[in-house]
Amino acid sequence: MAISLSPFSAIAIRLTSIPATSAPSIMVKRIVPLLILALAGLAAGFWFGHRNQAPANAPDAAVAQLLATRLPDLAGNEQAISQWRGNTLVINFWAPWCGPCVEEMPDLQALSIEFKGKNVQFVGIGIDTAPNMIAFEQKVKVDYPLLVAGYAGTDLARALGNKAGALPYTVVVDPQGRLYYQKLGRITSDEVRSALKPAR
Questions:
Q1: Contact by Cβ (8 Å): 122, 162
Q2: How many CB atoms lie under 10 A from the CB of residue 140?
Q3: To the nearest 5 percent, what fractions of the chain are helix, strand and coil?
Q4: Residue among 147, 93, 86 at smallest CA distance from 118
Q5: Mean pLDDT, 10 residues at a time, over the chain (200 residues)?
Q6: What is the pTM of this model?
């Protein structure tokens, strides 16, 4: 059976093979190249991992599916996303158990207030159960609609380019129904404002 070693494991093995009587300069000459290789490997892994998680382009059919979707709100009333068509839509896929989702929620709430009356509508699509979302909303108040998609909501997010199925995931759809912005991971206020510049 072959065992794949990490760069740090390789460094540890090489260090144990250096004689105790070796001069410090010899140790430095041996260790520095290994450290450089290890850091390069970690950087490459980080880059490839994030590159593979970059959102894919969403087909028009997926956006049409989003706009045709009907989901219950926290009161149990079914809401059609198409009712907000004609506005720029900021659709945020989130869950109460998702740390970055919880961290960005106050920013999204503040932005919802900032863009009120500017033909911008924020909508949160929760990947969880209604009771869990209600319990969360009682602690973190938001004034924009929170819709309950359950865990099946990940299929909708995947269709919109979130191939990793990770959270949070935010998309922006223009008034004509064209998706023009996607962000996988926690979104900042400045990123939202930049994405909404055409709506100002």
A1: no
A2: 11
A3: 50, 20, 30
A4: 86
A5: 33 39 51 45 36 70 95 98 97 97 97 96 98 95 96 94 96 95 97 86
A6: 0.73
